[in-house]
Amino acid sequence: MSRAGDHCCEEPNHRGDPEGEVGDGNPVVVVYTLAQAIGALKAAARAGQPVRLLSAANAGVCAGVGWFSALVDAARAAVPAARCTALLDCGDQPGAVLAAIRIGVEAVIFAGRADVARRLGEIAARHGVGFRRTRPAADLDLIDDFFASEDESAQHCAALLERLQRSR
Predict the structure, then answer these.
(1) Enclosing domain of residue 146
(2) How far apart are CA 99 and CA 87, in angstroms?
(3) 103: left (phi > 0), else alpha (psi -120 to 50), else beta?
(4) pLDDT 10s digits, 88-120
(5) What are phi and psi of 115, to 5 degrees?
(6) Which DSSP helix (H) or strand (E) runs through 87?
(7) pLDDT computed for residue 24 by the predictor
(8) What percentage of residues in the chain have a pLDDT greater than 70?
(9) What is the CATH number of the domain that holds 123?
(10) Are 139 and 163 within 8 A, CB to CB?
(11) Position 11 confidence tier, pLDDT thresholds 50, 70, 90
């Protein structure tokens, strides 16, 4: 088992969407800051398009489940017209998943052992928390714009949403 700080925000080994783990079909935006989350929701509201906010890899372990929950709540409060879902990556740490379930995080990713995942998935389902074994592919990852303002983040997300709209 790894220590919490060992894998903070590193790219995990669990990428893709295997059969049986269907997402909501909305564009996936990886956010690292409140400004990025608000920017993504501003772009989504302007476009009339829901988005899925995805945490950094292992953010539930290194940043904490409370941080992500507060980030999503604050972004939603700042842009109430936006529609979004949110997904917290808890790496391979069952304690982070349980903490996320306890505080009511909308959905989690757990990349640990399959037997543990089955049990955590059952617990999550009982509490109405979405549960995944893999990270969805990101349509936009804002890591290179960590210090971007809300408006800069909104511009990046708006460009993504326009591009996706044109490709349909």
Answers:
(1) 25-166
(2) 14
(3) alpha
(4) 999 999 999 999 999 999 999 999 999 999 999
(5) -65, -40
(6) strand 84-89
(7) 75
(8) 86
(9) 3.20.20.70
(10) no
(11) very low
